[in-house]
Amino acid sequence: MKVSIGVWSLVALLTTFVAVPARAADDAALLKDLTSVIALLALPCGQVVSATRLGDNDHIATCRDGNRYRVFINAEGRVVAQKQ
After folding, report:
1. At residue 1, does pLDDT exceed 60?
2. Which helix (H) or strand (E) holds 49?
3. How far apart are CA 46 and CA 5, in angstroms?
């Protein structure tokens, strides 16, 4: 029985190490995408350094220069960035 618990503990630990880098890669891709969206909308930002998810396709993006934008898809299906 103790061997079984040890094996499951090892599996849980390894799963954690595999899942964390995958999430970090997703976060980096999201930051890059938000940076691109804000730049394409001709808003001052530079680079998005953090993002908070509010909902599906709805984020608060914080830029390196201190600007914050809510980036979301409006009712017409267009991507919008509103200064916060």
Report:
1. no
2. strand 48-55
3. 49
Task: Indicate the pairing of strand 79-83 with strand 48-55.
Answer: unpaired
Query: Facing residues of 59 across strands?
Result: 53, 71
Phi, psi of 79 (to 5 degrees): -80, 130
- One-letter amino acid for residue 45 of the chain: C
- Candidates 25, 27, 40; CA nearest to 71 is 40
In the numeric block, which tokens belong to residue 57? 């396709």
pTM of the shown model: 0.69
Lookup: tokens for 64:
């390196």
How many helices (H) and strands (E) would you count in the chain?
1, 4
Kind and range of the H or E run holding 22: helix 2-40
